[in-house]
Predict the structure.
Amino acid sequence: MNENILGTEKISKLFIKFSIPAMISMVIAGIQPIIDGIFLGNFVGPNAMASVNIVQPFIQVIIGFCMIMSVGALSFIGRSLGEGKKEESQNIFKTAFIVITVISLSILLFGRLFSQEIAVLLGSNEVLLEGVSIYIKIIALFAPLMSLMLFFGFIDRVVGKPELYLKGMILSVIANISLDFILIKQLGLGIKGAAFATGIAYVSALFVVAHPMLNKNNVVNIFSGKFNKSIIIPMAYNGSSEGVVSIATATTAYLFNMTFMEIAGEAGVASFTTINYISQFGTLVMFGISDGITPILSYNYGNKKNDRLDDTLKLALKVNLAVGVILFFTLFGFGEQLVSLFAKGNKDILNLAVSGSRIYAFSFLMSGFNIINSGYFTAIGDAKDSIIIAASRGIIFIVLGINILPMIIGMNGVWITVPFAECITVIIGMHLIKRSNSLSVELVQDY
């Protein structure tokens, strides 16, 4: 790649080249469990679908640690290349590659040995325990290859190949749908078939994204660089907000699952699962845009081109706001039709989910602002402010909301928890941006 393209190409062209593939790739990667849910909900039953949702925190652990290292490495590499430090970039990549491999192998072992204990910890009752345990045990087998696929896909962007991650994700979703149809509908393997379908789908994408990392001529590859343990903590800290996002996703799923299990049993968990699937789609679009602009922001920050930072950030915020508005009206106006994709014919689940969707929809009007701001701080190496935003919207105010609001307004208090957390985080984020620098102050005023 011409390394200077990130510092010279027109921002709108860079945005399309990097963010559009990243956005589509992120959505496809995130909907793999949703595909499982659609097949299980329609061909096995709501309990099987609920089991897949219960296991999501475990999958988020796999994705979370990988995102910490991948985004941290991507930001570091981008800034290092912007400063002309090629050897340092190679060392960062090699270190992240080794760390991800070792930790993912540990997750594989842990998931295989303690699948039932993990299932109980995640809130499984006697009805769901077996299905959750089976899914954990199988998906753990694929943890190392899933992790490397995500890592290579992210780093492909810095060698000028952002489209490879998109191609890999397209292949993976085709593989997942095909395998779900065969293993769940045709062979009747249920949850076991869903887990194998998702794992194999991720592996198929690895064959696409790994190619540049095997090319010795690329600025970073698995053959160049040296392991440097002193890089690990700074790199992990820089990407830690991404880990907070995954922890937040796992925390939200866990708290909502436990709350709905207590209030409405398996039907309550299934109703939340349907809304969670729909909301994941919208959130992943926004995260894709944020991840796509990371190399643009980090390179130009390292190259001290603040005007390009300004233009990139303004464009990303406007696009995410537009996406949020579209998602709000879609969920608010067509919630019943969307929910029916997952819970067709089940009136109790349908009624619970449809009423909840109209409340939950308000979160999309604010989440884009928070996601972009958190990504911006990660890209420029300000991990602390990025963590504050990610933790506020995904952990702190989720925990406060779900423990307080249902006591005041009942079931609606559960659904309103996420919009409540996003709203408070917007206020916090605006304060952090105003405090950051004059560039960000101007951005908030324009937004």
In short: The first helix runs from residue 5 to 8. Residues 8-446 form one domain. The mean pLDDT is 81.
